[in-house]
Structures are given as C-alpha cells and as structure tokens.
Amino acid sequence: MTGEITGVVFTFLLTLLLAYPLGKYIARVFSGEKSFMDLMNPAERFFFRVSGIDPKEPMNWKQFLKAMLTINMLWLVYAMLLLVFQDKLPLNPDGNGGQTPDLAFNTAISFLVNCNLQHYSGESGLTYFTQLFVITFLQFVSAATGIAALAGMLNGLKHKTTQNLGNFWNLFTRSITRILLPLCIIGAVLLAFNGTPTSFDGKDTITTLQGDSVQVSRGPAAGMIAIKHLGTNGGGWFGTNSAHPLENPNYFTNILEMVMQVVIPVALLFALGFYLNRRKLARVLFGIMTLGMLCLLIPTIMAEVGGNPAIEKMGITQATGAMEGKEVRFGPAASAYWSTVTTIISTGSVNSMHDSSMPVSGLMQLLGMMINAFYGGCGVGILNYLIYIIIAVFISGLMVGRTPEFMGHKVEAREVKIAALVTLLSAFLIKGFVALAAYMVAHHPEMAWAVKPGSWLNNPSYHGFSEMLYEYTSANANNGSGFEGLGDNNVFWNVTTGIVLLLARFIPIIGPVAIIGLLANKKFIPDSPGTLRIDSWTFGIMTFAVIIVINALSFFPALTLGPLAEYFSLY
What we know:
- The chain is mainly α.
- It has helices at residues 2-31, 41-51, 61-84, 101-112, 122-125, 128-158, 168-193, 222-230, 251-276, 279-306, 309-312, 331-344, 359-371, 380-400, 413-443, 461-476, 491-520, 537-570, and strands at 204-207, 213-216, 405-406, 409-410.
- The chain has a domain at 380-570.
- It is built from 18 helices and four strands.
- The strands form two sheets. Strands 1-2 form a two-stranded antiparallel ribbon.
- A hairpin with a 2-residue loop joins strand 3 (405-406) and strand 4 (409-410).
- The protein is globular.
C-alpha cells in the first residue's frame, strides 16, 4: 500500500513539474509572443481568410460572448444531425444504429459543453465516424472555448481601463493550434505505443483464459482518449472508460492519463501569474485550490484503503482495501486519486466505478463537483473561482467598512448580483431537478419515459438517492462521471440533464466574462495602504471560507439524505 501512495505523490509532483513551464508557454501564446509553435501561422491565416475573420478586430464583452454562443449553437445542430443519422454514414464497421432524438439531444449537448455525460456505451452507441467527427471534434472545441473565455477575462484584467477582451476567434483558434493539438499528439503517441488501438478495423474475436469466445471493439481510440483528458472532457471511447484495458492498458498509461487531465488546469493558474505579472496571486490561488483538493483527497484515500466495514463485520480481512469496482491493475489508492481529480477538474473520466465507492468517497466526489473551482476544467475552473472571489471581496469590504475593490476596480451592485445569481443557479439546478426525479420515482414509476417500472434505480434507499443526486451534480459541474447504477438512457433523464448541462455551462461563463467586462470599463484605482490585497494568504483563506459556507448552506441537506446517511448506516 505504501507503494500505491508513493505513486499518487509521484503523479502529482510530475504534474506540477510539467505544469509550470507549460503555464509560462501558455502566457506567451496569450500575449502573442514568438514561440516554436509559430509554424502554425500559415494554417491559422488560411482559416481566418476562408472564414472572413479579422483576428485583430477588438471585441467588448458583449461581442465576445455573442461570438462564443453563436458558434456553439451551430455545433449543437451539427452534432445532433450526425448522431441521429450515423447509421447512414461511413466508418461503421460494427453496424451500429443511429441514436434516438432524445439521446442525440443529450449527447450533443453533453460534449458541446465539455461535460461528456454518456447515456450510451461507446462500443455500441456510436460509430467511428461520429466518434471522430462529433465526439473528438467537440472535445477540442469545447476545451478551446473555455480557454478562450479565460484568456478574454485575463485581457480585461491586464489593462487598467479597457473595453477590449481580445478577439474570441483568435484566442479560440490559438488555443487549439498552439496548446491542445501539440499536447494531444504527444499523448496519443504515448498511448498508442502502450497498446491503445489506432485501427479502423471492426470488432475482433478473442478467446479468454476461461476459454470463452468474446468480441472486443477497437477503433482509432488513442487520439480521442488524449484529448478527452487534456481538454478535461472525460468521455470514454469504450463504455467503461479508462477502466477498460484498451483505453488504459497499464500503470504507465494510468499515470499518463492522470497527468494529462490535471496539467492544463494547473498550468493555466501559472499562466495567469505570468500574463498579469501577478505571480503571488497565482501562488495564492494554487495554494488554496491545492488545500481544497487535499481536503477531498485524503479522506477518499483513507476510506478506500481502509476497506468496507460491512465486510469487516463478517470477519473478512481486506488487506488490499475496498476493491469492489476497482481495477486490480491500479488498486484503491490510485483509483481514489483519480476519482478526486476527475471530479474537482470536471474531467469525469473514471478508472474505477464510482457507484462502488465507499460513502465517504462518494461524498468527496459530490463536494468536488458542487464546489467546481479547485483547479476546475480548462479555463472555466478559474472563471468559477472568480465568482467566489467577487463574493469574498464584497463580504470583506463590508467587514472593514469600505467600498470593495478588485484589482483596481470598484465592485458594485451589478457585479455582486451577477456573482450571486451564478452561485444560486448551481444549487437550484441540482436540488430542483433531484427533487423532481425523486417525485417521479415515488409517484410515477409507471410512466413510459421511465422505460419500465423501477428501471431508474438499481439500489434502494440512501444510495439510490445518491445516484440521482450525483447525476444532476455531474451535469451541473460539466463533469460527466456517474453513479452508473442509474438507468439514465430514457426521455426523462436525457432531456432534464440536457437542460441542466446547457444552463450550467454557459451561465457560469457568461457571468464572469460580464463581470470582468464591466469592471475593466471602470476607472482604474491605484493601490493604496487601504486597498484590499487579493494576493495575500489572508484573503485566500477568506475565499476558502466563503467556498465552505456557500456550499455547506446550499448542499448539506441533500448530502445528508445520500452519502452521509449511507455512511452512518454502515456502522
């Protein structure tokens, strides 16, 4: 077990070692400075020329958001059409059928918003064509959308007074060509050389050690698996995601995939420090986020390594920890680390089944998604954290009796109202839709969209409630992981989670970008002895306290009915 813990520590330290220089490079990309990836200039110029886009055209925050939202609407229609008619398109060696309209609605939205909540199994629910030209495509553009939104926010903070957040199309394109694509090529090559499929052949028949003959799906999976982690997307090529031996062949690829999903969110924190020339602020943000991550990770590792008390009561010693739902190739500690980072970073990929996690682990996974700001997804993690900062600035201003300020700009009623609305929306979406689902289970299990009576939940009582709570929490956090005891491929779950996915993706982007746009247009106020320093550890702890209080008030009752009740029932 000591070796497993060592592997977890090594993985995190390796991530930091790679994230720091990557953050410096990303800052150079945002600044338009020369770099070795200038070789992409001809391709970028060709794209802008064909599209009729002037990449140097300035955009205020309204123009920036308009560009972002309109192109995402186009991608949604494009993805839905291909998914519904995928059985009539090429690259379908296994003869998979088209998706139903409600499933296509859910799948298209899910990958559009960087969530990758999958109500289908990859082997049978998609074809190679849609895996590549819908799923992989959306994994690139959704991650680039988040990075571009962060870059726009940083542009607003960099200048004393400005209306220009930068050109969305330029930031979006460079996020793909200069950041995501080169890293993805490296990750895909490493995965391919370790056994991840890159073939366009159909299913292969193999004979197991038990003598059974089974068919195993293949496909050009390596590239998609690389971007699913680097873009904090998380959708699996195979139904069991990174617990599948072809999607995650060995312990090296397990470390590789954990590093890939964490490295860009952490690098973006360092990039913030370099780009704004506020390295102390970046260190404070990194420190508070890491503290939050450890508060979730340590109890998870202890719970999984400690084993299941229900089994201990039977007199059975669990020398290897709680292994239900875990891959023996990785063990409980590595699975605990994965489950923590995949939920705080909104990746949502899994190398173990979260539905089999111990109640404490499930609680930590839910909290990571409810907070949704400890590192967070590509770009949007810092945007989410900004909401907590604005609230903390407002509260701190009230405590000391002065007008709250953020980086030289007064925080007034409009900004605080936007931050409050974004915060309240999260709690409303999760608890409101969980209440609706619980009502449907209790009073209308016979309805047609539930497929058949009792088909929603494979587990009763507290854990059954946790399955529904996890589903909407995952959708709200744009995470995509699930307690897969839930039967979710039906009209009710496809439509309701689709609504949550759309609102929970774009409003938390619109809110912070609007806040920065409003602040950046105000008169700059130089620092003075009375200025609230947001780069101090005192303010960092204040922000951490705000995160704890807001989420405790919002979600404690729901968590009490689910994982907390299940935990106490075991004892």
